[in-house]
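The methods section describes the discrete structure representation at length, but only in general terms. Since the whole study asks how a given chain folds, the encoding of that fold should be made plain. An entry of this sort, consisting of the sequence and the corresponding backbone structure tokens, reads as follows:

. . .
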Amino acid sequence: MDRRRHRLPLAAGVAACLLLSNGIARADTLALTGGTIIDGTGAPPIVDATVLVEEGRIVAVGPDVAVPADARTLDVQGKYLIPGLMDANVHLMINIRLETLIKYEDRYDEIVLEAAQIALKTGQTTVFDTWGPLAALRGARDAINAGEAPGSRIYLAGNIIGFGGPLSPDFLGAAAPFLTKTFVKRINETWEQGTGRDLMWMTPDDVRATVAEYAGKGMDFLKYGASGHTDMFFIQFSPRVQRAIVEEGHKAGMTVQAHTTSVESLDMAIDAGIDIVTHGDISGPQVPIPDETLKKLVDRGIPVSVLPITQRRIDEYAQIHPRVPGAILAPYMKIGRENQKAMIENGVTMLLSTDAGVENPVVAAESEGPNADPRTKLGEGHFNALAGLEELGMAPQEILRSATSHVAAAYRVDDRLGTLEPGKTADIVVLGKDPLRSAAHYREVEMVIKDGAVVNLDALPVAPVISSIPAPATPSPRE
């Protein structure tokens, strides 16, 4: 297949989208005046204030900012300015059903771009992809960073170290016998890059060498499996192998996080020296995280990316589990919600995450559930997660920080991202209503500014691949 055939409409759309909605060029001085600034640090809101931006960076914030005569001014009186939202754990190429893997094999980068654009359209200026095809993610990230395509800023891990690819036993291994071995190998290697399940047979020194090599392939951080994926109760790596992975990641100057799904895998990962726990609120279907482990998280300052869901979704889980296969996670999410509440009460630093990617309209239409307040639908899941944290009693400023400054600090990019402060990159979301009064108000996105440029939200996504697939017509009662 000639890939250039797909590049032409994408390139044309990108060119159109890069023409900013009000003609503001990135090098210009931009002033947003009259709004209420909630800067993401936890400080009280600043009413009737100005954010001054020069060459993509914030240079002044406050009520008495002098606006240069040649500045382009946007009056945002009555609006609320917050830092660009972040998601600590997405999967921009979550679409690993067989027909997608086969039909779009040479277009994964386009799907990743589509996902990054959907995220940006809904206020997420930065996302952290924690499992996906390295080359496609890297290509989309670099295109966005170079200004060749619009989209959320992407930081990526590539594979989860120790996990297989989409057609391995960790995911859709049951489908492998119905495909050629060549195809299965090619697809799995697209994800694994030499860091798959074979690592579980290796010595700590062998794993260390493999991780050191992998860390040079252009990812931004590392993630490994402390427990299994399909078999969530399995411990994936021994304590000394986990320490080797963490040490090699740190040598490469990267943060290292662990996928954990059980009480003991969480505790072991903490002891291995990780920087972040991925969905560390998931501790199995029966047992909440013990107080001693929560205390470890607090004492060692380890943030946890969590998967908050709303009570409405919990209620739907209860109604359809175990009748509906899609509700298999029901007991895990129920315990996870208990763990989230305990984390709030104990002062654990929490990072908003969703596991989200581009929703396939056909899959959504055919799903038996759960359908209420979706978690993994990119562009929607983060709003539901914010509402879930509010339901659990998290303080309004902490809800905002869970999706901004806490995420930036956890990934060590807080020197440039995560707050509205002088010196930071000008990533700003303008809301029509006060998010500190209700988490539902995060949906009131009226403007998104990334790198100091106003985003043309109406143009996103530029060249949709998955989200534009026609949904099947609803059958009539007679059919």
User: Anything to note?
Assistant: Residues 1-25 have pLDDT under 50 and may be disordered. The longest helix spans residues 330-346.
